Amino acid sequence: MPRIFFFFLLLLLLPQLLFSQLQKKYEKKEYQIQRITDAPKIDGILDDSTWKDISVATDFVMVDPGDGDPSPATHPTEVKLAYDDEAIYVAAAMYDNEPHRIRREFAQRDNLPIADFFIVDFNTYNDGENQTRFILTAAGTLADAKMKGQNEDYSYNVVWEGMVSIDEKGWYAEMKIPYSALRFPEKEEQLWSMQLARKINHRNETYVWNYIDKSVGKLTHYNGLLKGITNIDPPVRLSFYPYVSGEVENYDGDTQTAFNAGMDLKYGINEAFTLDATLIPDFGQTAYDEVELNLGPFEQTFGENRAFFTEGTELFTKGDLFYSRRIGDTPTGFNEAQDAKLENEEIIDNPEKTDLLNALKISGRTEGGLGIGFFNAITETQKARYRNRTTGETRELVTEPFTNYNIFVLDQQFDQKSSISLINTNVTREGHFRDGNVTGFLFDIFNKNSSFNFAGEAKMSNVNLPAQNLTGFASTLEFSRTKGKFRYGVKHDFANETYNINDLGLLFFNNYNNFYWETSYRIFEPSGIFNDYNIQLFGNHQRRYDPDVGVTTNFGASFFGMTTQRFAFGGNLNYSTPFKDFFEPRRENRFIEYPENWYVQGWISSDYRKRFAVDSRLGYNSYLGTDHGQLNFSFSPRFRVNNRFLLVYSFEYMQENNRDSFVELLPQNIVFGNRDRESIENSLQGTYNFSTNDALNLSFRNFWSAANFTQGEFSSLQQNGKLTPYSYEVDEENDPNAHFNIWNLDLSYQWRFAPGSEMILLYRNSIFNLDDQSHLLYTESLENLFQQPGRHNLSLRIVYYLDYNRIRSII
């Protein structure tokens, strides 16, 4: 009888016990931070008396690959936090019963190698969206990023301190994060949210302080609370980054020198808003652009390498209306300058870049969660110069007038996960030139339990031309399930034929009315041999808006998998119905119809923890009923010589055969030809880290491509998108064949000699060749390339960080 009684009692209590454990698992943790009077020495050794009576954040739980499993007794984590009027201080002890297995690979700032690391995230507005991430690896590498949802932006850089140490019990991290590195509301008592995390690389495990339910919402929705910061009186947030730079360049026997000096500055208008400005900017040491042979109808685009346009720009990139490379780009009248040359004239100067005079941005967020951003940049007038061969007289033609670029953003966060935004971009050019204005309204709404998301955009553009104004409209509506293993979503994209954002944004084409859908199944805990996998089915139907014409319909499937041994692999398969290409003909409202096609691709990526690892990808695209096909292959091995030295080689190959491609526009005809194309790219990245503050870096890239048109197989494009044979004579003036080869090599030494300060010594070597010698093989092309004059550049740049408060204390 007693046994039956206890059995039924257990049945009654078990659900309550399980519910209690589940409730505890999802409950937000709280940490009560303490004010201190004596700041600890930031040396990575946690023996300061400051830390003795500080409360501990512990009981970390697994976020990857598992779901909420407690830290093993062999690997506990203990974190302490304190504050004063200058900064937040963090001390973390990462215990490990096998300290010899702690991964300590060296790297430079913001480059996370295969190493153990500690993370602290602060969301100073507790809005579930915007937070700042600080990372310290077991080797002492610092990294910082702005986070929004799942996305990390490591272009964000602030000045803070971090040091580490290691002993027989594990490793330790100590941080000082000044208030100058954070933005927070101006009020007596702060309520921040916080997440702490630890990566144990040799176990392939990540643990967090506050539990994260990966099956619902975003990572930033799962912070714990940081309480107790009161009555802080932060110092003036004003810092200067003066620089000097010099360079020597030799090209084709001509040597030139240059010297530059300027300054960036940051000023905290108040605790929430910051002004960033660059005065007389110098971008001479930015990474080279990966230029390719561009035979398509769209401009080639490049990533942004200028720090000012990547740091703290998360507000300005909303709605995808800001393509920062427009600022300082090739003058809008660069190509027209050649056509404007008179009969007896020669061009003696036609600038390829527009000079940036200065730029500034102001951004921040109010206590009520309203983000406000203002961006302004000014570029100088550029002129082409001509000389009359007979009289010697010169004249000038403005190719880019004095131009003002502006962005204004309002972004209201609410419910700790949703937002609505208003953004306006404006470009005003002096004189009778083109101006542009774009306004966008955006929303991103989650329901109460984060299981569904509804997002959308409505954008209107207005282009002022000397003869007319063009107003356009575009919109996006998207609905998706964001909870559980099984997810789905639908989306609609629309733009009319006059929508144009290209004065400050990037738009390849308009006049579309497209529909998308996708569904997926994923796991959040290890299953069999997999730590993670995701299966996705997707499709879309694309149409022109005016006239209403179907363009194509696509169906596809993809797979991603990561095994317990950290071997990743996957691929995708896609089928497309016949495709009406309205852009390849280069004439408005004309199209060429390509037949239905299928595409298959597979890839692998081995375990980066091993000294040798490899990434590889193979894809093939076939157009049914024709000989048109394209093969893509890439192979990238990486070898970690030791904890300081890493080499990564990449090889990419592309071969396309029998493609019907644009050749020339004639008054009565659009000429197409049958084209074969082949490309090879070799690149090498090497880094030797003397420490986490100085390194020698090698970056090399060689890209070759040749395009050959079959002689006698030219066609004329008909109104129905079909091709008919056409007699087209090729000579030296109109040869469509193309041969392209470029070589870039950068060798640099970078030394961060003080917080926020650095010196970079850079040597560059580049060679470039573009002609019609498409019959040359790759090896023959290299021989031909080295006959071209090379450009050699040696430059030195020194930036020194000056904090106003330290200057004032010295004075």
From TrEMBL:
Domain called DUF5916: residue spans: 234-810
InterPro entries, per the entry: DUF5916
Alphabetical list of Pfam families matching this protein: DUF5916
Protein name (record): DUF5916 domain-containing protein
UniProt source species: Salinimicrobium catena
